[in-house]
Amino acid sequence: MSLSSLQSKTGYSRSSWERYLNGRALPPRQAVEELARVGGVDPTRLLVLHEVAEEAWRREPDTSRRSDPSESRGARRTVVIGVLVAVVLGGLAAGLLVLAPWENGDSGTPSRGVFTYKAGKTYPCEVKQKAGRLYAGYSTTSTALLGGPGWDVVEAQCLLRHLGFDPGVVDGVYGPNTTQAVKHLQDKAGLPPDGLVGPRTWQVLRK
Length: 207
Known about the structure:
This protein is an all-alpha fold. 52% of the residues lie in helices and 3% in strands. It has helices at residues 3-10, 14-21, 29-39, 44-58, 70-89, 92-103, 151-162, 176-189, 199-206, and strands at residues 128-130, 133-135. A two-stranded antiparallel sheet has the order 1-2. The radius of gyration is 18 Å and the shape is elongated.
């Protein structure tokens, strides 16, 4: 679609879409919803990606210590374009691939190696507080979007259990029981109960 077509179908101007698609401005949540509608894709996961973009936009690095101040703008721009690419392609994976450079290893499991799912394998949960935040020792992430099996899921399951929301077995698989526990947590915290873990849900889990 042309910019004129986007303007007529979404109600946002040509110049606005040009800024959004070039990564020069953060698109508002409603613009992402409108683009998803026009593209015929489910907006739910895309809105979680939009949360990540908002987080990146708010994190304004100190450019006074950088040799090239454009590095800060470039990082934010990458995240914004990642959300819009995900809309255009209709899938979460594309957005995550573009977002990967910004993550900078935030999903940290330095001593555990690559997660491999093993049927019947469960993990113990020993949640501790460090610097006012809760950790179970499987991941240090506060931004990862949970989907497939992994240490981030084990971490979330332990934190859910610690906070009184039963995720079922702690096996690193983001299944129906974990999704339901996340929804209950989100509902109690005043977040949209979509069952998807993004930055805002991690913030509640880490408290």
